[in-house]
Q: What sequence folds into this?
C-alpha cells in the first residue's frame, strides 16, 4: 500500500525521470489508481510546462546600451593599442 | 565577420569563448548578444526588481569579461556565466532584505509542508485563454509568492533548464537541497496556478 504522502516526496524525481524504471512503474500504477495523485501529477507537469514556455524578452534598448557602454569601457581599458 | 544568428538552436559557444579568451572583444560581445536575454530573465526572476536586474546583468557580464582567463572550460561557458549572475542576484537580494529569508543555507524542511490543498483539473490550454501579457503576469505573481531560495532553484531548474547538479553547483548547495527546494517550489506554484486555472464546475456559461 503506497501512501500519497510518500509519493509526493518522490514527485520531482518521478517527473524528472530520476528514479529507476521499476520504481517509476510502481509509482505510475499508484498514480493511475489514485485520482488525487493523478491530478497532482498532471497539474504539476502543466505548471512546469507553462514556465518553460515563458518567453525570453528582448533586453530593453536603454538597458542594453548601458550594458554595452560599461563593457566597452572595460574592453578599452584592457586592450593595449591593437590593430 | 559574419554576424552569428542569436536565434540559432545549435549555437556553438566554444569557438567564440576561445577567441574571447585570446583577447578578441568582438567575440565576447557576440557571447553577450547571445546570452543577454537569458541572463536578464534570470536576474529578473531571482531579484524581482527592475533596477537590481539591470545591475545584475551588467555586473555579471563585466565579471565574466574580467575573469575570463579563469574560465577553464570544465563546464559550459553559459553555466559559468549563470553562476556569476546568480551570485550577483543573491547579493542584491541580501542587500535589499525585502525578504527575511534569503539564506540559501537553511536546513532542509522536514517534509510536512507538502500537503496539497488545491486538487483540481485545469481548463484545457490555459495559455490560449489569456493574452501573453496576462499569462506573464500570472506566472510572475505566482513566482513572487515563493521564498527567494525556492524561487532561485525553480528558476534555474525549470526556467533556465540547468541540471540538478549544475543548479547545486551554481548555488553552492547540495543536490539534496536542490531537490527538496525544487519539489516545494513546484508544488507551491502548482497550487497558485490551480487557483487560477482550475476548470470551473457546472455550467460553462455561469459567467454570463
A:
Amino acid at each position: 500500500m503506497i501512501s500519497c504522502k510518500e509519493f509526493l516526496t518522490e514527485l520531482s524525481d518521478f517527473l524528472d525521470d530520476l528514479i529507476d524504471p521499476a520504481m517509476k512503474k510502481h509509482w505510475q500504477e499508484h498514480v493511475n489508481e489514485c485520482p488525487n495523485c493523478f491530478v497532482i501529477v498532471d497539474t504539476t507537469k502543466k505548471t512546469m510546462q507553462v514556465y518553460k514556455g515563458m518567453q525570453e524578452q528582448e533586453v530593453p534598448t536603454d538597458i542594453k546600451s548601458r550594458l554595452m557602454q560599461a563593457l566597452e569601457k572595460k574592453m578599452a581599458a584592457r586592450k593595449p593599442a591593437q590593430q | 565577420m559574419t554576424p552569428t544568428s542569436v536565434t540559432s538552436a545549435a549555437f556553438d559557444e566554444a569557438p567564440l569563448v576561445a577567441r574571447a579568451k585570446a583577447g578578441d572583444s568582438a567575440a565576447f560581445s557576440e557571447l553577450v548578444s547571445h546570452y543577454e536575454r537569458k541572463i536578464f530573465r534570470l536576474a529578473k526572476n531571482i531579484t524581482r526588481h527592475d533596477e537590481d536586474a539591470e545591475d545584475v546583468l551588467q555586473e555579471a557580464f563585466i565579471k565574466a569579461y574580467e575573469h575570463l582567463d579563469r574560465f577553464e572550460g570544465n563546464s559550459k561557458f553559459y553555466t559559468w556565466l549563470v553562476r556569476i549572475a546568480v551570485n550577483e542576484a543573491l547579493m542584491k537580494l541580501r542587500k535589499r532584505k525585502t525578504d527575511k529569508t534569503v539564506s540559501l543555507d537553511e536546513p532542509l524542511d522536514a517534509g510536512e509542508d507538502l500537503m496539497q490543498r488545491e486538487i483540481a483539473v485545469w481548463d484545457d490550454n490555459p495559455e490560449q485563454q489569456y493574452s501573453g501579457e496576462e499569462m506573464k503576469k500570472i506566472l510572475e505573481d505566482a513566482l513572487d509568492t515563493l521564498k527567494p531560495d525556492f524561487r532561485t532553484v525553480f528558476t534555474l531548474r525549470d526556467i533556465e533548464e540547468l541540471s540538478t547538479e549544475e543548479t547545486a553547483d551554481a548555488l553552492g548547495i547540495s543536490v539534496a537541497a536542490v531537490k527538496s527546494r525544487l519539489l516545494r517550489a513546484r508544488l507551491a506554484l502548482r497550487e497558485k496556478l490551480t487557483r487560477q486555472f482550475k476548470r470551473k464546475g457546472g455550467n460553462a456559461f455561469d459567467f454570463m
Q: What stands out?
A: Chain A has a mean pLDDT of 90. Chain A is about 75% helix and 0% strand.
